[in-house]
Amino acid sequence: MSDQVKYLLSEEQMPKSWYNIAADLPVPLPPPLHPGTGQPIGPDDLAPIFPMEVIRQEVSTERRIDIPKEVRDIFRQWRPSPLYRARRLEKALGTPARIYYKYEGVSPAGSHKPNTSIPQAFYNKAEGVRRLTTETGAGQWGSSLAFAGALFGLEVEVFMVRVSYDQKPYRRALMEAYGARCVASPSPETESGRAILASNPDSTGSLGIAISEAVERAVQSPDTKYALGSVLNHVLLHQTILGEEAMLQLEMAGDYPDVIVGCTGGGSNFGGIAFPFLGEKLRGGRDVEIIAVEPAACPTLTKGVYAYDFGDTGHLTPLVKMHTLGSTFVPPGFHSGGLRYHGMAPLVSHIQELGLISSRAYKQLETFEAGVLFGRAEGILPAPEANHAVKGAIDVALECKRDGRARTILFNLCGHGHFDMQAYIDFAAGKLKDIDYSQADLERALAGLPKVAA
């Protein structure tokens, strides 16, 4: 159909394996290091935090890793997710570009995050774990892990960044409805949290701080493990199911992306949509331009340093080489809570260093303007995080209009904004402001990067 809007796959067409880009990288990813010895870490170093199957996937260089049938059976509730042709948005922009978006807001938690929370809960349950701890920013990951915990009979404890805990009470309510315990971070319940509160009782919190609290809690109990919603290799691996589906759906449309746009905070949804296409390119397939979009108030890829750093503020995690603003950097409290992280996924950082992707940063107000424009054209109001991808895609489409080029644009609409309506209320009332980070705070955080031998 020449005017087709949505492209749907059957449950039988859902991918049965994840794609691992580590198999196709022209230069291997720098290994994680033990902060004490400076040497590459081994599985035993990660065993107190993660189950062994997750550790195996974290270090794997196999191109394909099977998705367990039990996981695929749960995925069938919302996967395969739809691919849409944004025809009304194209018309509103007056662009010759063809715009497609993969829509992950159809999951029970309203975002792409269950694509990894379900397998992580499955692997933990299989190894006899009783409780999972985690962090969350905007709450999409926390609610997704809470959902997975409910399905597998696991207790879930979520440390939610304080500014988002206050801004997004309905995300907190969803976690609690699924049976999870939600704690504002920094909290008085951990040494990491108490240390932050002692120096700054009014701390807005950060994902780095919340990670420290969750990891600290996990290592204290043998029946408890930690689950992460972004950044690490196994998380990006799990998200590639959405890019694999998009490849099949674009084949149905008789099209292929010239440009892929994704929002980046930790890198999971970006890797999920982009890595399968990048892998095809690296194996000699069609070329594609890939653009990562991030908030200007937390500009990890565009302003950060590529260096070994801790993934958390309390320095309880291994050192990974990534684009970082410094583990002690606390971004201002803008509404895209899921993008308020000081570091970027090592895989995403690595491919930018190799020149395989480019990155852009946008301010808060312009992303909300893009989200409202998209919502009025397409009927879906995006999450504040997803607004960054929308803004990036709109800008590329307007560049096509200016240049008279009919390029094909693909982006991942990684979640809906139904739990973020206060942000849209504030935007409509003119209360939402562009917030800048402190250059002095950034320089102070970068000055504290760990010293690693070359």
TrEMBL record:
Gene Ontology cellular component annotations, sorted alphabetically: cytoplasm
Molecular function terms, GO-annotated: L-serine hydro-lyase (adding indole, L-tryptophan-forming) activity; pyridoxal phosphate binding; tryptophan synthase activity
EC number: 4.2.1.20
Domain Tryptophan synthase beta chain-like PALP: 76-415
CDD domains in the record: Trp-synth_B (cd06446)
Keywords for the protein's UniProt record, in alphabetical order: Amino-acid biosynthesis, Aromatic amino acid biosynthesis, Lyase, Pyridoxal phosphate, Tryptophan biosynthesis
PANTHER family tied to this protein: TRYPTOPHAN SYNTHASE, TRYPTOPHAN SYNTHASE-RELATED
HAMAP family referenced in this protein's UniProt entry, alphabetically: Trp_synth_beta (MF_00133)
Protein name (database record): Tryptophan synthase beta chain
Organism: Stella humosa
